[in-house]
Amino acid sequence: MSVRTYNPSVRVGNWNEDIQLEEDTLKDFLDKREKGELLTQKSSNLAAVALQKKNLSISQDGNIRFGDVIMLRCKGTADRTRYFAGVEPRDDCTLALNLTDPMQLSQDKFATTCNVTGCRSLEPVLRTVFCVQSVNGSDDVLRYGEPFYLTTLPEAGGLLLHSDNCTFMKCAKKSRHQLVSLVSEPSFLTQWQVVHKEPRLRMEYEGAPVKANDVVILTHCKTNQNLAVEQDFLVRTPLGREYEISAHTSLNSHKAEEESNLWTITMGVPGDNMMSSLSQNNNQSEAIPSTSPPISQ
Questions:
Q1: Alpha-carbon distance 188 to 195, whole Å?
Q2: SS3 87
Q3: Which of 72, 103, 263, 287 has a 20 to 30 A CA-CA distance from 25?
Q4: 273-294: per-residue pLDDT in tens?
Q5: Which ranges of the chain would DSSP assign to H, the alpha helix?
Q6: What's the rounded Cα separation, in Å, for the pair 199 and 191?
Q7: Dihedrals phi, psi of 161, to nearest 5 degrees
Q8: Distance (Å, rounded) from C-alpha 297 to C-alpha 291?
Q9: Is the Cα dihedral 63, 267, 100, 75 positive or negative?
């Protein structure tokens, strides 16, 4: 006569070790949550710091000077026709610091090297504003054809916009074009220059001051490639899908740069529409509605 010696209440294998492991895992999780060391907590804190609102510099004479805080904006495509299902026309975007590096999210500060993306948000925040720095330490106006550094603010680590010739191991992940990133050490690889958008007028504008809120082309000094928005390639970030940024010159049939290479150096100029809209947004965000009734005379 066979007797069944096993039932669901029987413990088999290393049951004691499994229970102890679960208890230790739960205890470690609770300790990290109390100290704020969980990856989700660190990433949310870092994202909150990166989204702090910043003020752009105001140009009194309409020129861009070294030390000004600016925002680079690339206008969306003029043709809004959807030629393929699921493919949307490119929207307006701004150059922004990317927070997708897992090692960076595990720290409480910005890493010394990170990538950049095209953010659809057009508000001046810490991750979307940059500072124009001179190569030789001058405080004069920025001129066409003059090399300069484009750095993040000191709160974001003071990183410099960097690029180099693409190789098989070092290139943009999706477009396979020249990689653009942020580094901490200045070099010839971090030097850029402003070029006029019209090819026939570039020699005439050589050495002329760069005006604020003008549409220009940013060219890398070493590789002679233009800063570009890859409208066909999106990358995942903690803040949503954003456009991939590379250094690639896109020419049309007339040998002129396409819309993906055109950037607007956004600043505040007294009396313009951009300045008034920014002031209205700041006033609306800082205004607190009053709930007390008006005082009768």
A1: 18
A2: coil
A3: 103
A4: 554 454 455 555 444 443 434 4
A5: 15-35, 39-50, 102-105, 202-205, 273-286
A6: 21
A7: -70, 125
A8: 18
A9: negative
CA distances from 217 to 3, 135, 148, 264, 270 (A): 85, 19, 14, 8, 24
**Rounded distance between C-alpha atoms, residue 33 and residue 22, angstroms:** 17
Beta strands in the chain (DSSP E): 69-74, 93-97, 114-119, 130-134, 148-151, 160-163, 178-183, 192-196, 215-220, 227-237, 240-247, 263-266
Half-sphere exposure of 41 (CA within 13 A, CB side): 9
| Phi and psi at residue 77, to the nearest 5° | -65, 140
Count CA atoms closer than 13 A to 240's CA, side-chain side: 7
**How far is residue 272's CA from residue 277's CA, in Å, rounded to a whole number?**
9
Q: What is the pTM of this model?
A: 0.76
Q: What digits encode the pLDDT tens for the residues 87-106?
A: 788 999 999 998 755 445 44
- Residues 54-71 pLDDT 10s: 999 998 888 999 999 999
27: three-class secondary structure by DSSP: helix
Q: Are 58 and 251 in contact (CB under 8 A)?
A: no
- Reply yes or no on domain 54-281 having CATH 2.80.10.50: yes
Percent of the chain scored above 70 by pLDDT? 80
CB 142 within 8 A of CB 64: yes
